[in-house]
Amino acid sequence: QVQLVESGGGLVQAGGSLRLSCVASGTDSSLKSMGWYRQAPGKHRDWVATITTGGRTNYADSMKGRFTISRDNAKNTVYLQIDNLKPEDTGVYYCKATLGKIVGYDYWGQGTQVTVSS
After folding, report:
1. Which of 4, 19, 24, 88 could form a disulfide with 109 if both were Cys (CB 3.0 to 4.6 A apart)?
2. What span, in angstroms and rounded, lies between the C-alpha atoms of 65 and 113?
3. What is the mean predicted confidence (pLDDT) over 65-84?
4. Is 9 left (phi over 0), alpha (psi -120 to 50) or beta?
5. In terms of DSSP bridges, do strands 105-108 and 91-99 run parallel, antiparallel, or are they unpaired?
6. What is the per-residue burial (b if ≥16 Cβ within 10 Å, else e) of 41-55?
7. E strands along the chain, which residues?
8. Largest pairwise CA distance in the chain
């Protein structure tokens, strides 16, 4: 059973930084990638960034510059560093893992709340 547990969210002032963590368990060799998504209040869930098992990273165009995704394979953990936080970064940040040798299956964490005050 794949489980993803996010942490690291909280209330921060604009201009500050946060590092979100996502610990994965129950994954196997079919793990392809892990990623972060953000859902602002009243809006759709938007893709932020993805990192493959090989370490290749991709970012949504609007997220480039202040967001950095990384992983620690030994700890089965993916991180999202967010710098120079802005009030519009407020939302629930979700971690997603994609597994499957042929067809990809997505697994989601429960999310961690980030609130940025101006």
Report:
1. 4
2. 21
3. 95
4. beta
5. antiparallel
6. eeeebeebbbbeeee
7. 3-7, 10-13, 18-25, 31-39, 45-52, 57-59, 67-72, 77-82, 91-99, 105-108, 112-117
8. 45
Band of pLDDT at residue 73, cut at 50, 70 and 90: confident
Residues 22-42 pLDDT 10s: 999 998 888 999 999 999 999
| Whether pLDDT at 102 is above 90 | no
CB atoms inside a 10 Å sphere around CB 75: 11
